[in-house]
């Protein structure tokens, strides 16, 4: 008769910081973006850990715009400049707690375009946004893509890599720009964490197999519209 003795080791320590998730640079969002902040900690027993959030040393008000998910993420919609600041998460379990700071900066698009310093937060750099060009008053201009309207661009990427699709335009008369995947309009909330839609740029920070497909962007004003299409293949 064999007797098997199994032992289970339960780590009795507070939550730990995840160093590769910490960033000394602020996370930059455009006005109107949907924001999701992740507390850069981990625990041997995630189910026994809960997370509290503060903004500029004041507890966030979950009754208003802020929501803390069951995984401890802080979410809010329609970011405004007043949402800029230092957010502190406090991860707690039965053996103690750990704190971490996440700095958020919400900026107008014009500031993003003119920003000289590069902020590394997995978003497109400032020189990837096309500066506005002067348009004479009352001049009727339809946005003109460098990529011809009927031309399709094929893009091949690997799982986990970054994807940047750009609709460059010459001549801007306040066009509305929408992005689509398989004919359905995309918003920030449809993308993975750390990804961004900002007018002529679609940026996905960490590609998944499900991100493959047919993408298109349409820029239009009252005088007409232009379209660019992309076929994205994601390899394992």
From TrEMBL:
GO terms for cellular component: plasma membrane. Keywords: Disulfide bond, Immunoglobulin domain, Receptor, Signal. Residues 15-105, 143-233 form the Ig-like domain. The keyword Glycosyltransferase does not apply. SUPFAM superfamilies: Immunoglobulin (SSF48726). The keyword DNA damage does not apply. InterPro entries: Cell_Adh-Cytoskel_Orgn (IPR050958), Ig-like_dom (IPR007110), Ig-like_dom_sf (IPR036179), Ig-like_fold (IPR013783), Ig_I-set (IPR013098), Ig_sub (IPR003599), Ig_sub2 (IPR003598). SMART domains: IG, IGc2. GO terms for biological process: homophilic cell adhesion via plasma membrane adhesion molecules. Pfam families: I-set. It comes from the Eukaryota. This is Fibroblast growth factor receptor-like 1.
